[in-house]
Amino acid sequence: MGYVLRLSEQNGYSTPWSLCQFAGLKQNEFRTTGMPVDKLAAVANRRPSELEPIAYTPPPGRPRWACLLGHPIVPIEMSVMPRRFCPECVAERGFVEAHWHLRLMAACPIHLRVGASICPNCGQPLRWFRPGLLECDCGGSLLDRLPPSISETDASLFAAIRIKVLGFAADGENPAHLPLNHLMALNLRSMLAVIRALGRFRLNANGNTATIDELQTVLAATEVLRQWPTNFIKLMSDLGQDAQKNLSGGVSKQFEGIYRALFKNKAVEPREQTDFLKSAFLDFAVNHWGRGFVDHKLMKWASEPTRRRYITQSEFAATLGVQPRTAARLLKERTVTSDRVKCGKAERVIVDASHNVIHKTQPGRILRAREAARQLVLPVPVLSPLRETGEFEVTHLSPVQPGWHEKDVEAFGRKLLALARHDSEAGESITMAAIMRNRHHSPEIKADLVRAMLSKEVPVFGTADGNIGGMQLDFYLYRNWLGDAMRRAAGNARTPAEAAKALHCDRGAIPGLIQLGLLNGTKTPKGLRIDDESVTQFSKKYVSLAFHAKCFGTSTRALMRSCERAGVQMLLVPMMRRAGPQPFVRVADVETILPSAA
Ligand SMILES: [Zn+2]
Ligand SMILES: [Zn+2]
What we know:
Radius of gyration: 35 Å
Bound molecules: zinc ion
Number of strands: 18
Oligomer: single chain
Strand order of the largest sheet: 5-7-6
Helix content: 40-55%
């Protein structure tokens, strides 16, 4: 159509309509993609084959489609009369570039402006039956006032569409960090479909439900594709926030909408071209989500065995080579972190493998606790908690095997001895052996002291005899630390009953909350103690449904049903003594489910 207008203008016609009449073209013939090129070629003194490449003649075997510079495309993606174009480009080049026929092409990446669609003089939408490329019916020049400008980043995807249509090579500059090579590898139709899908889901996640135009769609897709794949992962997380009510099934089911739009879309083919989207989707499912299991369907995408962060309990058992029951026990003892997620009607345990490096037993001697303690000059009750909290690293022993691997013990010994600094002048000091012998201090305090040494809070001058027992600690700093530690031990811990009272929940839920890592608990000779700070933190984030049920004179069950209706995700804390799990909801979600709000 741009060519027709140019031909008309150059030959002095006041509208292409006259030219069309002269060529014997009927009105309905040149408004469609099936324009008879030979009639036009005859009046232009050209061979039809010369005009064919810039016509929209359907590709072979697809009579309903059109071609845009050789790219097969569905007619709804293009308009024969471009809705917009760039007047500055026309002023510089003398013709309208073909990509303006695409409906998504809403801005010029060369001049960083929105495409012109109305006349700056008369304010009317531009007609293609006008005197010239840059001249409106009213006589106004389209260069008089240019459309609004956009940023280079916002123009980056428009630039990609343009070079795709024109068949140019990407020039290597990619300041927005789009997955440019992957986008360029897509055929034009798939590229447009992917842009539409990403734009639409980004706008949906933003809560934008108003009529969406092409400019918005492409800008939203640009946002998703920028800094690939960071913002794609962000989009997925945002969709995950919205889709809480559908939190059942595997990840591909939970994100069915975008999954279908990208991977089951007839407009996106061949499927191999979307591998970069699959990798990003898989990355999100495996490493970022954690509220659904990664289905085998998704895992098939991984070209090589992926180390997944979230695995099911049975997969966890298989990695360890143990019975599922043993795996369940390990999870319960919180040797590894896990979480419960809803999966249809059932609940499923998702194990976070990133925190749980699972080791197999290596060759070497397995020591009993007492032997390990003797070697390290640390009493067993001091050593054991250090292993639980990870200061003592178990890297040579499978978690299902009891005992202490000699190589782990040696490694911990080296770690402690490495603390001895020889560069500073020794002041008044006290030895490790003396501290460990002191009966007035509890093993917890002593274990804490080792932690304080490891974090350099209490400095070590050196070692008198080259062994751990002879390690010399700065006496004054040790005494200061000890005073603080005793005060902490006295005041900052709560009993399970006190913690339950503070959280308005059943006492039986406390071990479950510790197991889920939501409260910090320590076993003391007087029983389980819960860190006060963790209670405060948890109460800021979650509330027990039972408590709200009581306040509002309704039942926990009824509130659970409102949660399900409102799509509010519940935290189900496993209870001791086989009772049903105790539900909590996020403080932020309470408003949504209270009876008064319903
Ligand atoms: Zn331009
Ligand atoms: Zn005008």
